[in-house]
DNA sequence: CATAAAAGTTGACTACGGTCAATTTTTAAT
DNA sequence: ATTAAAAATTGACCGTAGTCAACTTTTATG
């Protein structure tokens, strides 16, 4: 009775494994959906029983990988570091991951911020995961009086996430060239957000 | 001698006119490039002598329209209104324009924040135009002591633009349903940015 | 075990964005 | 006016994402 369920899991994973291999090897655009099918030893049509679009496969694959990034960050983020440092660490880790392979980082970012109708659901899941990770940091910060506690949490989370996205966007626009520049820009923006933009 | 140049302008405009008509009538996805060609009374191949991709046509068409939005805003933005009000007016006007036709607003936003390689150039132009419009407001604000003058302007511009984008993204994710909600969210975020997120 | 319904698989097919070699039009030179 | 080079136009063609009707496998029922 678990036979069907079991096979579905296996097939799904086989597709993701094929994606990890081929997307990394040849990049997203250069990998045909039929290539993925061949690598996963299934028919091309079958893939569409598991994923609505090609980019949804990328999303699924990132959903797996992102957990590694978050874990890595949790280890680095010692209890004693300040809110700003912790945010900086998280965002830089995301940035490094996402730009390791320039091409599919951009596609991921695109889908996550302004998803196609078909990908909306998986994107929302992934975004929720991102926001949750930021939330965790902010909740600690609030309890340690490093942050205002008179605004809805979600708006603070969104605020910081927005700053990360704009820096990422600027990177893809070619406004920043080096990791160093990204780091500085992020730092300036986060500091601004903390201090406020009103005079004095 | 101006014959060639003149024709090029005419053809370019014919394509944009076709785009205005068909994108509005049938939407971006449902409009084939060959439809645009037919409407503009030219061959499909010709279009690619003027625009690198289908979405670049959308971008060009928005570049025209956006000026109307900015003008509209300038009229509303009386001299006496505060920085926050002026930003709110600008962003809400952009929001209304961009979501008037839900579909191509999303595509525009996608391309502008994380453009495909082929569209990078036109996107940058359009984004520059957006940022310039925000800059103008901020420069006035700085001279009226409504804003800190000890941070690079571009980072303040980017900060506010980021907040606009995150709200737009949240709208497309379905996190906000009404214009009212957008307005409130935007207001909260802009206020946060002014006041800062540090305790008191 | 037989069997019928449900679920899953498949590759030929469709649709469309983008390319390009062949053709036409414009310009510049004599 | 002639003509050759340059620029612009074109639609047949290509590649690939996504669909779907036919087919296979699994499950549930008696």
Explain the overall architecture.
2 copies of one chain form a homodimer. By secondary structure, chain A is mainly alpha-helical. Chain A folds into 2 domains: 1-50, Orthogonal Bundle (Arc Repressor Mutant, subunit A), CATH 1.10.10; 54-195, Tetracycline Repressor, domain 2. The first copy, chain A, is built from 9 helices and no strands. In chain A, helix 1 (3-26) crosses helix 4, helix 4 (54-76) packs across helix 6 and helix 5 crosses helix 6. Chain A is elongated and about 65 Å long. Chain A binds chain B through residues 106, 109-110, 113-115, 120, 123-124, 127, 145-149, 151-152, 155-156, 158-159, 161-163, 165-166, 168-170, 172-174, 185, 188-189, 192-200, and chain B through 106-107, 109-110, 113-115, 120, 123-124, 127, 145-149, 151-152, 155-156, 158-159, 161-163, 165-166, 168-170, 172-174, 185, 188-189, 192-200. The structure holds a DNA duplex (30 and 30 nucleotides).
How are the elements arranged and paired?
The structure is a homodimer.
Chain A: H1 3-26, H2 33-39, H3 44-47, H4 54-76, H5 83-100, H6 102-113, H7 120-143, H8 153-172, H9 179-195
Helix pairs in contact in A: 1-2, 1-4, 4-5, 4-6, 4-7, 5-6, 5-7, 5-9, 7-8, 8-9
Chain B binds a DNA duplex (30 and 30 nucleotides) through helix 1, helix 2 and helix 3.
